[in-house]
Amino acid sequence: MRKYSIILMAVSIFCLTSQYTLSQISEGGSPVSFSLSTKMNDVPVVSMSPVNTKALLQEDEKARMLEDDTPKPFRFGYAIDVDIDIKKAGVLTRLPDGGKLWMLKIQSADAYSINLIYNRFRLSEGSKFFIYNEDKTMVLGAFTPEVSNNPSDRFSTDLVQGNTIVLEYYEPESADDGVINISKVIHGYVNTFGRGASRECNVDVNCPLGNDWENEKKAVALILVNNNTSWCTGCLVNNTREDMTPYFLTANHCLYRGGGLEDPSTWLFRFKYWSVECNSDAIYNGWLTIEGGATLRANYAPTDFALLELNKRPSLNYNMYYAGWDRTDMFAQKATGIHHPVGDVMKISYVANANNIAAVPYEDPWISDHWGVLFSQGTVEIGSSGSPLFNQDHRIIGQLHGAPSCEYGHQFDCTCGLPEGSYGRFDLSWEGGGTRSTRLKDWLDPLNTGVEVLDGKGCEVVNLHNETINDDNFIVRTIEGCEVNVDNVIIGSDAYYVEIIGHKKIEIISMVVEEGSSVVINNGTRVSQSSSSSSFSSLPSSRSLLDSGDIEEDVAEGIVESIIPALEDVPLLYQNAPNPFTGETVIRYYVPQTEQAAWLRIIDINGTTVKTENISDTGEGQLILNANALSSGIYFYSLMSGNNVIVTKRMVVGR
After folding, report:
1. What domain range includes position 482?
2. Which of 403, 400, 402, 396 has the alpha carbon at shortest distance from 440?
3. pLDDT 10s digits, 210-226
4. Taking residues 555-567, what's their average pLDDT?
5. Are residues 492 and 362 in the same domain?
6. Percent of the chain at pLDDT exceeding 70
7. What does the alpha-carbon distance between residue 167 and residue 90 come to, in Å, rounded to a whole number?
8. Is residue 22 part of a domain?
9. How many CA atoms lie less than 13 Å away from 551 in the CB half-sphere?
10. What is the rounded distance in angstroms from the CA atom of residue 163 to the CA atom of residue 185?
11. Distance between CA 437 and CA 401 in Å, rounded?
12. φ, ψ dihedrals at 124, nearest 5°
């Protein structure tokens, strides 16, 4: 039997690199002025009016002591209303290439940090915008039109350490329509950089207690709310489409400012903000902030939930996780909270005993609409609001409303002496107030599957090394992950069909495909061999290398004619949801107008066809399948074109 080997390399399409501290999503690089002989003394300064830090701290303490007070986000900053146009207030320098460079300083005496909100923010084509502190130890940017422009023209930037920041905007000679207008300067009167002021009984998420929570911690974020002066916590959540729609669960009370509902369009979401190791003062330098704000999808005061959708979908390169959930009313046997107390690095809290978990009332004494927990390790504090509570199966069962013993004065050590928390119940939030805007159901189960539990979803790295895939018991084998790395792998003819899907990157060092077998790479490019062909062939598909860049090809042995780039309009088949399933599951697909003979085929593990379904209409469609029509076990469903298999997925029927 002849064998052929193909060597492919697909590279990631985007990476973030910078020699400086970088926290907000941008394109990296260095400010233009760093390569010039610019004297900072020549840059004009806009100085803020003095801020009475003592009065603000007293105000915060008084708010926490009020007996009729409700939970609030942790406030660290004071918003100062301004109207600053960088082109009018800054100094303009003409550069040798014809470009224009505006620079401006903003100073607020005694501030630990400064962050900004913009009411008009539209960058010109080819332009770059940076913000940094005077000693250049912290740089945000470059913000570019491709990364930062949005339909609302509103924008916000993360905290920059220090009491003076420098704004720098470069426009090429051909552009002059950029607008950067600042509406609020936030003076940080509490220092939230480094290891914060959280209580000593908190536990870093990178301590041994967090070892089993590597996925879930990538879903949790610190949120900048309340005119970007305060911190809350929340997390990304999965939905039954499992399409990584960036739904984000937090507390309803984080939405309110001055008695009114706040527009979250300028909120910032800081992910992966944790210490590099247990109890370390060093902060992980891969933390990132997603700007662009969010849109409120649903909220409900009795269980204190708010569901947002981020206005910018996180790139797969960021390796986020979308947490699973459990909407049953079953009491958890154990529970874990992941949160950011007082804006600190990420912490973890743990309930080891089911006896310390109870259904309790919060505001209405007659309705047990919260899960009350007493932590065995760790605690929660102000700023932890909105953080998820997971059960022993790593599924969300609630989000933090507050710690009742801490809300009515400080008569005793409530956070460490009595480490408790009250979490709005996810199962009651599911139906909430009975409408689309007051419940979770419509958003987290868009397919209306009725599923009660859903596992989380993230980017899994799959490594196939020194393996032979030659299982004659399986007609298809799917290898799916955010990254798929293949080295010294043989695809035997008995495997028949192998699909390799890499949403972020596919790296194939060496793969041998035996005659008679077929491999589809990235749900698109097909590499196959038959007795009538002496070269690999390629069939066009929309997902061929779409997320992983161009393929570089070389020949190890045999002949490689070409790997053909993707076409846009091709058939698609999605993973059924839920999977596994015991009731109904939904299989979604897309058939282009050019495809006239599409149909679905379901086979069992022995290759016996158990169901076929003709597809009469083009476009998106779905098949609802009932488990009662099938025996329990493993099945494979394929989208067919005539007698040809386009793509195949695996599903499991339970009982």
Report:
1. 3-13+460-557
2. 396
3. 999 999 999 999 999 99
4. 27
5. no
6. 81
7. 9
8. no
9. 24
10. 11
11. 19
12. -75, 160
